[in-house]
Design the sequence.
């Protein structure tokens, strides 16, 4: 996305998505890492965490006992799921694929995942599950799977395999990086696919020991510099108790560092490109 098109981004907090003209992309942040990606007549749900506020135990070893999710969904589950054509899951940690999502999503819904999670999701009763080794095509959109590092050292190993996805219709590529810190895999994906829009899971999620397992302020800044002037959308904040970088903290950092290509949407906000 060049500077001219970046200036045309429309931000709206209205939950229902309007009818878009052909080849228009929109991304709606539901909450945390849960997104709805719209392109033409295709509506894709990414990393659904659909539990009501406080329904889940807190993340352990985080220095607090706040139950999660820490905030309500911005709309009803029925509205969120209406018209969904497929679900893409970057990995199966409960803040990206929770028991409520497994309960309410139709078992015949097309589900796309990383190979490491294929049998697990099938074992949950879903009958139309496909693992993306490298890339796949769904309703005219080419989806490339990318790698990442969900932390470093022993913590990173315990967090397991994670993926991201590049959604490519030729006129626009949107990269959903998933739960990863800044690493070689992210840098390589940015160089290879040159996305006009990159969505990163910020929040600086961290335990009492070990380093961050999602992007902190400095990681987001590195992504911003790597793609500038194209857009970075930072999500994955203010919902789970081990995410220490809040929207307020990141907004202050963005302002102080004049990172003009970064968007930090509130829950329910739609960004239209």
Sequence:
């Amino acid at each position: 996305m060049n500077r001219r098109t970046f200036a045309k981004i429309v931000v709206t907090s209205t939950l229902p998505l309007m009818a878009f003209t052909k080849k228009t992309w929109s991304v709606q942040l539901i909450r945390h890492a849960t997104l709805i990606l719209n392109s033409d007549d295709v509506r894709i749900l990414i990393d659904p965490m659909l539990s009501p506020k406080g329904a889940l135990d807190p993340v352990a070893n985080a220095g607090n006992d706040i139950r999660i999710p820490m905030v309500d969904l911005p709309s009803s589950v029925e509205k969120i799921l209406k018209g969904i054509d497929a679900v893409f899951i970057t990995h199966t940690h409960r803040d990206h694929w929770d028991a409520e999502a497994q309960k309410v999503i139709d078992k015949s819904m097309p589900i796309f995942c990383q190979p490491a999670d294929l049998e697990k999701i099938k074992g949950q009763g879903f009958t139309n599950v496909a693992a993306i080794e490298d890339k796949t095509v769904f309703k005219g959109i080419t989806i490339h799977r990318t790698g990442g590092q969900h932390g470093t050292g022993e913590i990173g190993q315990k967090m397991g395999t994670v993926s991201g996805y590049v959604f490519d219709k030729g006129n626009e590529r949107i990269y959903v990086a998933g739960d990863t810190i800044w690493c070689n895999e992210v840098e390589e994906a940015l160089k290879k696919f040159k996305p006009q829009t990159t969505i990163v899971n910020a929040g600086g999620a961290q335990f009492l020991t070990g380093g961050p397992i999602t992007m902190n302020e400095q990681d987001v800044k590195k992504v911003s510099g790597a793609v500038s002037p194209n857009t970075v959308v930072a999500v994955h904040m203010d919902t789970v108790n081990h995410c220490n970088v809040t929207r307020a903290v990141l907004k202050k950092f963005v302002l102080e560092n004049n990172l003009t290509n970064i968007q930090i949407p509130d829950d329910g906000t739609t960004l239209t490109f």
Q: What stands out?
A: The helical segments are 3-6, 77-81, 99-104, 118-123, 153-159, 184-193, 217-227, 247-256. Residues 166 and 175 are 4 Å apart (CA to CA). The chain has a mean pLDDT of 92. The two ends are 9 Å apart (CA to CA).
